[in-house]
Design a protein that fits this description.
The protein is of the alpha/beta class and 367 residues long. Helices cover 26% and strands 17% of the residues. The protein has 8 helices and 15 strands. It is globular and about 55 Å long. It starts with 47 loop residues before the first strand and ends in an 18-residue tail after the last strand.
Length: 367
């Protein structure tokens, strides 16, 4: 991989990123982030975007929850609400990933082994992030052109090495960096607009690369969390609904910057009051005429090409017609049961027959 340096003519990777000046950094190719609304719109002219994301494996443990969450819930344009799944490999059932993809959700990479990547070199980052993208293509039928983003396990970003790798392999965004202040997505050609909470953050200039920052939620004790399940909650449905509502109103009634709901689905397991409070909250905000649940890619697309609320209702960015995606998996799936780490791993695929071995780093085809 080291031999690829000669294709870097367009990018000055090693140049330190300078302060972001909105006079020079202009959409569609550059944005400084922060609270300023792209396109110069005022808060009352734009939708309130909600970013709902789920990290880690997709499997039978969360299947029923996703079906209940996404069934019968719609954005104001009549399309079903969408979310972004940052999928890690181990324990994932790729037939279920295909179903989510067919339904219009974004599928992104959360690596193969779900390891701390702080000290990874570029090649190791590629094996993990691009490796999982290749597995998603092979076993879940995801179009490689649709896998454009990642989230680092444990939010342990890999600094410039990680972003160089993303750029080299045609990805264009990461969503791993927490911030305490509301912010739109920003490009990494210039210095990031918030402090670095988990080092190493990127220090060099990365033209064409975007960050979807992870705005923290505030909990009842005055603490904050970037993954919603990291906060402290009073454990009853009304309190759960109330704390999400309070956080939502901080965005909706003020800056209208994108509202974060970043979860591990495991937070909802065997905790019916959490699910009930959360779904009541979701339904209460979907009753508003300007609330859109969008994927990370859609949010970046709107940031680059912003349009006011009336145009959003008919915008091709937020459509729900996916003729080029495979259909839902159905019953014709290959059920694979393979040994791994002295234990069994099961997954299904509608794309390929079962491999001989459980796919893993350096053996994605399971040969």
């Amino acid at each position: 991989m080291a031999g690829n340096n000669n294709n870097r003519t367009k990018r000055q990777f090693d140049a330190p990123a300078s302060h972001c000046d909105p006079a020079f950094c202009q959409i569609p190719d550059c944005y400084c982030g922060g609270k300023d609304i792209p396109g110069g719109y005022s808060a009352d002219q734009i939708p309130q975007f909600v970013m709902l994301t789920f990290d880690d494996a997709v499997n039978d443990l969360n299947k029923a929850f996703y079906e209940e969450l996404f069934g019968g819930r719609f954005n104001p344009n009549g399309c079903p609400i969408k979310s972004t799944f940052y999928v890690s490999h181990e324990w994932t059932d790729y037939a279920q990933v295909q179903d989510l993809y067919a339904d219009g959700h974004e599928i992104a990479s959360h690596t193969i082994t779900h390891s701390f990547g702080t000290n990874f070199n570029e090649e190791k980052w590629a094996n993990e992030v691009v490796g999982e993208a290749e597995v998603l293509v092979r076993y879940a039928g995801v179009n490689p052109a649709d896998i454009k983003g990642m989230r680092a396990p444990f939010l342990a970003v890999g600094g410039d090495k990680m972003f160089n790798m993303l750029s080299r392999y045609g990805f264009y965004y990461d969503s791993s960096m927490p911030t305490g202040s509301p912010s739109w997505p920003y490009s990494l050609e210039y210095r990031m607009p918030h402090s670095c909470s988990v080092k190493p953050c990127p220090g060099e200039s990365h033209p064409g690369m975007w960050e979807v920052p992870m705005k923290t939620l505030q909990d009842v004790r005055g603490g904050s969390c970037s993954m919603a399940d990291g906060c402290f909650y009073t454990e009853d449905a009304d309190s759960i609904q109330k704390i999400f509502t309070q956080n939502f109103l901080e965005h909706y009634t003020k800056s209208k910057a994108p509202f974060p709901l970043f979860f591990h689905a495991a937070w909802f397991f065997s905790r019916p009051h959490r699910k009930d409070g959360f779904l009541k909250f979701i339904d209460s905000i979907l009753a508003l005429p300007d609330v859109y649940f969008v994927t990370s890619q859609e949010l970046i697309a709107w940031t680059r090409y912003p349009e006011p609320l009336p145009q959003v209702h008919s915008s091709p960015i937020f459509h729900c017609n996916f003729p080029n995606r495979p259909g839902r998996c159905g019953k014709k799936k290959n059920r694979c049961n393979l040994s791994h780490k002295g234990d069994q791993r099961q997954f299904s695929s509608c794309q390929v027959t079962c491999p001989k071995r459980y796919p893993w780093i350096n053996n994605l085809n399971g040969e």
